[in-house]
Amino acid sequence: MNGKQNKVLQFFKKLGPGLVTGASDDDPSGIATYSQAGAKFGINTLWTALITFPLMAAVQEMCARIGLVTSQGLASNIRNHYPKWVMYVMILFTFPATILNIGADIAGMGAVANLLIPAIPSYYFTVGFTVALMVLIIYLPYQKIAAVLKYLCAFLLLYLIVPFLSKQNWSDIAKHTFIPTIRFDKEFISILVAILGTTISPYLFFWQATMVAEDVNHKKRRLVVNKKVITDLDIDVDMGMFFSNVVMFFIILATGTVLYNGGIRQIDTVEQAAKALEPLAGQFSYLLFAFGVMGTGFLAIPVLSGSLSYILSETFKWNGGLDKKFYQAKPFYLVVIFSLLIGLAINYIGISPIKALIYTAILYGVTSPVLIAVILHIGNNKKVMGEFANRKWSNILGFAALILMTISAIMLLYYQFKG
Q1: Which one of 1.20.1740.10, 3.40.50.2300, 1.10.10.10, 3.30.9.10 gives the CATH number of domain 14-418?
Q2: Distance of alpha carbon 84 from alpha carbon 78, whole angstroms
Q3: CA dihedral defined by 285, 286, 287, 292, rounded to 10 degrees?
Q4: Looking at beta carbons, which pairs linking 152-155 to residues 24 or more positions away fall under 8 Å?
Q5: What's the pLDDT score for residue 153?
Q6: Phi, then psi, of 323 in degrees rounded to 5
Q7: Contact at 8 Å (CB) between 73 and 206?
Q8: Closest to 99 in 3D by CA, of 332, 310, 345
Q9: Which of 185, 233, 272, 309 is a good FRET partner for 87, with 20 to 30 A between their CA atoms?
């Protein structure tokens, strides 16, 4: 038994940036998107979890491999190998989208905390969470942040319990998981595009590459990149993306059976999803859902704000990184503070969280195809990647992601401007 436990612990220790990146994808705004899909269309979108997993894994694996081989983040590689305007365009679209994402996540956390403790208004919680996140990100050393983020992933396991608290038709669930349902109308296509934009997001590309590069740079001795190291990297990324998609699947399943079958067809926010579960699936389901939202917020917001800081630091050659003290990397941490404060302010200037999600999806949808194309180009550049350039399946899945995200961006823009 001890031997088996040691093997499990050793396996878990190998997991790092890939697990955190995948788990952070299921943030409160992502939970809101999956809840909308489940409430509005039942289990008709369950199949998307199977489609997005290999595409996410392929793109994130390329980002991780770029960080491993070059010991630099994605922004540094773009700066070194592409015209400056490419990086500036990425910043132009990624920065506001990520800020809006942070704002939506803070709002979601505050709202579910208010549901748990109604006597305290939600704005007290949003301010408190923002301040707590600032303190943790600025004062905790990198190793502690990495460990905390890793163990916060456990909060996502709560969502795997919810569907089992009510009776399920598992044969029908299997059918909708393996046989895609597609309706060519504005609402259904829009939710498919939102799911894609939520799962394959630009900020995750930057975070993945930078965290792997930072791990390499923190090794006490120079890491020799070989097939074993690449294999361990692949396992980390695959497990993270698999974990992310399993959670996505179970959130759609929970809301698509409990809420949809209960006649609740419109969910715009995570607190609505949590509150709606209580009378239909019991208080335990409601509490699990609410605590999950807060836990994932504490996991995702450092990733969101950190990715922005890394993008700007690498682009403008600032001395930055989570391993630095505040006085050693003031611009880096000022971006973190600024992004959190602006995200908080969004909740008080009249932009609703659901509108923030829509704007975020549009900006991500426009940026993702361009960024995936750049990642594919770097991954195939033997001058940069040497013998660890993309293999056949990386390119096949990477180009599939590029095509799918491009079509999604075109459809998203079409439906937004169709009127």
Answers
A1: 1.20.1740.10
A2: 8
A3: 90
A4: 152/23, 152/295, 152/296, 152/298, 152/299, 153/19, 153/20, 153/23, 153/243, 153/299, 154/295, 155/291, 155/292, 155/294, 155/295, 155/296, 155/299
A5: 64
A6: -85, -10
A7: yes
A8: 345
A9: 233
Give, in degrees to the nearest 5, the angle at Cα 280 between 52 and 255.
10
Query: How far, in Å, are 212, 266, 276, 301 from residue 353 at the CA level?
Result: 32, 15, 18, 15
pLDDT mean over 227-235: 80
DSSP assignment string, 54-116: HHHHHHHHHHHHHHHHHSS-HHHHHHHHS-HHHHHHHHHHHHHHHHHHHHHHHHHHHHHHHHH
Q: Residues, the chain, total?
A: 419
Distance CA 283, CA 211 (A): 38
**Domain spans in the chain, listed from the N-terminal domain onward:** 14-418
The whole-number pLDDT of residue 14 equals 59
**Environment class of 62 (CB within 10 Å of its CB; exposed 0-12, middle 13-18, buried 19+):** buried
Closest alpha carbon to 63 in 54, 73, 53 = 73
Q: Are 25 and 214 in contact (CB under 8 A)?
A: no
Q: Which two tokens stand for residue 232?
A: 């361990």
pLDDT digits 0-9 by tens, 296-321: 888 888 889 989 999 999 888 888 88
Q: Whole-angstrom Cα distance, residue 99 to residue 115?
A: 25
DSSP one-letter code for 239 = H
Show Cβ contacts of residue 226 under 8 Å, excluding neighbours closer than 6 positions.
none
